[in-house]
Specification:
8 strands, binds zinc ion, 17 helices
Length: about 450
């Protein structure tokens, strides 16, 4: 009897040990992984996407961005015209009959696109979203275009121009990139002043703050769903918290002329930044930050590192503000994801989703999904690179990359025993649609 009990006990321990082992995730995917991938991808292809960031536009539309590429900038391999994926995109979308965009071949596509642009109406870009399976796309633009249907495209407006009300000659002279960027900021500020019926800079800081707050509120009324900072292109993402008197003094001294020192300009900007965040909190308007490497030849990786924002993202004064770190903080994706541990911080996979190939995007998404799957959003960063390769083709490349990469990340995790296929599909839906739809109040 004693021996019998011993046998039963050892059988029990053996069985429970086996069941623990079965429930514990393994470091290697099994041979079933490719089959799981195919099954998941079929279902993931059906998920309608909510795209957190794009520049939906025709290439000759000056409202597409408050930025422009400096001439001769270095381009990553995947974004060069020679990438055959862009020809594949044009073929899938428009039946483009060539495998490249040579001078003899590209006009086939350019002429068609020009004709569609001339036709006007919203059907063209609605049709592009339908073809790639996007339900809603945020459009980061100076203004929403008449050819974008507001039912499908939501406007994200720029606010960096409020940082540059003074004489900017020293700012523009810093380097070739700033020489391109700063005049565009001045134009956007002039446009906002015209929009608000402000003919000259207000007499004091109180007046300027009121103008800033009113512009943001009016942009929200015009359909704006978020404000966007491209600050990483111009300055450090580390914002100090200067007293109001210092900003008021700088404003009084330079409102009507004179060139502020670099230090004075930064103090003023840090103060206006706080005004913008406060207003975002009051209006329940999410705040987007460019948080990755940037275009141009003088982008500072150190200044643009999203960890510089930690003091702001973790500041209890802004806990009612939802922040979105656009472009996943790439290449600091592993550090950045820990910022999304804060309840009001999100990130998206735009830009990096077409900088790297799907095999690498898979690795990044696998880590993000393993940590904070409710805080990660798909985004295309659809953008026109030239008259042939447009936002249309980049939508297609970004969507195909993300669908295949997230399917692969999840297939590995399922095959490793992390969770079930049903759970994997729920997680894919969070990333491709639900997290963003909830963030912008379009879903409970
Ligand atoms: Zn972008």
């Amino acid at each position: 009897m004693k021996r019998m009990i011993q046998l039963l006990l050892s059988a029990f321990f053996f069985l429970s040990a086996a069941s623990v082992a079965a429930a514990q995730a393994r470091p290697l995917a099994g041979p079933d992984m490719p089959v799981i991938y195919e099954r998941l991808l079929k279902k993931i292809d059906q998920i309608k996407i909510y795209d957190n960031h794009s520049h939906a536009t025709f290439p000759d539309d000056m409202d597409m961005d408050a930025m422009a590429s400096p001439p001769e900038e270095s381009t990553v391999l995947r974004l060069r015209d020679s990438n055959p994926e862009f020809a594949a995109a044009a073929k899938a979308l428009f039946g483009y009959p060539y495998a490249d965009f040579s001078a003899e071949h590209a006009p086939w596509l350019i002429e068609k696109k020009k004709a569609w642009e001339k036709e006007g109406g919203t059907a063209y870009f609605d049709g592009i979203l339908d073809k790639v399976g996007i339900e809603t796309s945020l459009a980061n633009r100076v203004a929403l275009a008449p050819y974008l249907n507001p039912k499908r495209f939501r406007w994200v407006f720029f606010v960096d121009s409020f940082f540059y009300p003074f004489d900017n000659q020293k700012q523009s002279a810093k380097n070739g990139d700033m020489g391109v960027y700063i005049p565009i900021q001045e134009k956007v500020l002039a446009r906002y002043m015209k929009q608000e019926g402000v003919s000259a800079l207000p007499a004091d800081l109180a007046g300027y703050e009121e103008f800033v707050r009113r512009t943001v509120a009016d942009n929200q009324k015009r359909g704006g769903v978020a404000m966007k900072f491209e600050a990483a292109y111009f300055r450090s993402l580390e914002f100090s918290d200067p007293p109001r008197e210092r900003a008021a003094d700088i404003y009084a001294r330079f409102r009507a002329g004179g060139v502020p020192t670099a230090q004075e300009y930064v103090v003023f900007q840090d103060y206006i930044f706080r005004v913008l965040l406060d207003q975002a909190g009051k209006l329940k308007l999410p705040v987007h930050f460019h948080s990755a490497v940037g275009i141009g030849d003088y982008f500072s990786l150190r200044q643009g590192n999203p960890l510089n924002l930690e003091n702001v993202l973790r500041d209890p004064r802004y806990k009612q503000v939802n922040f979105v770190l656009i472009h996943g903080g790439y290449p600091y994706t592993q550090d950045m994801i820990w910022l999304t541990a804060a309840k009001n911080v999100y990130t998206d996979s735009s830009l990096m989703g077409y900088y790297v190939y799907p095999s690498e995007l898979k690795n990044i998404l696998k880590q993000w999904i393993s940590l904070y799957p409710e805080k990660i959003l798909f985004a295309s960063d659809a953008f026109p690179f030239n008259d042939a390769v447009g936002a249309e083709e980049t939508y297609w490349v970004a969507v195909r990359s993300a669908r295949t990469a997230v399917a692969a990340a999840l297939a590995e995790l399922v095959s490793e025993g992390a969770f079930s296929e049903a759970r994997a599909l729920e997680l894919a839906k969070l990333y491709l649609h639900d997290n963003a739809a909830r963030l912008y109040g379009e879903m409970k």
